[in-house]
Q: What sequence folds into this?
């Protein structure tokens, strides 16, 4: 079993790399962000801990967490972001370790965007998907409808390229074509 951590900033093209690894190499993909969302569903331990810590003012009328309100709060309030991170991140890493332990796959890729000190290291190597700022902003506008200002604000809130490079063992360049990415992956694997 080979376990790879895959990271990169928003708009860098992690989804493209994941789809190639899944479709062409049979990789099992574990997405940290999806696990975090699952942990925030009503009744789940993350939901209970976050609503206790931040109050029920973040809930929709159906009892689900208003993700937009939560995102606004954590991007404007560092203490709220730290509180949510301190609650959810350890739960996510435990779930990832459990999934890796239970997997029969030959190749497992754990995808996440947030780099921090409390990060787990359940992988043998970490890959960084890199793209230029202009390509990232263009992709975010095309794929998510983000304005340039919104994209720049999110990018600025994430780890810097030097932080990513310090922790990663390989770099996947994603400023070219899909064929460029495929050939890089073929060479690595």
A:
């Amino acid at each position: 079993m080979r376990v790879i951590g895959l990271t990169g900033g928003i708009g860098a093209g992690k989804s493209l790399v994941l789809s190639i690894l899944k479709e062409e190499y049979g990789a099992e993909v574990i997405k940290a962000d999806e696990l975090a969302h699952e942990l925030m569903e009503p009744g789940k331990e993350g939901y209970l801990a976050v609503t206790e810590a931040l109050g029920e003012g973040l809930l929709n009328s159906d009892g689900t967490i208003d993700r937009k309100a939560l995102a606004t709060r954590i991007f404007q309030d560092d203490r709220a972001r730290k509180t949510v991170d301190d609650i959810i991140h350890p739960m996510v890493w435990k779930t990832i370790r459990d999934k890796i332990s239970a997997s029969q796959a030959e190749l497992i890729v754990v995808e996440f965007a947030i780099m921090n000190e409390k990060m787990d290291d359940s992988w043998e190597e970490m890959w960084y998907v890199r793209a230029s700022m202009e390509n990232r902003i263009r992709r975010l506008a095309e794929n998510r409808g983000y304005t340039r200002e919104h994209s720049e604000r999110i990018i600025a809130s994430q780890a810097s390229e030097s932080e990513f490079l310090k922790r990663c063992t390989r770099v996947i360049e994603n400023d070219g074509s899909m064929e460029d990415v495929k050939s890089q992956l073929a060479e690595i694997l």
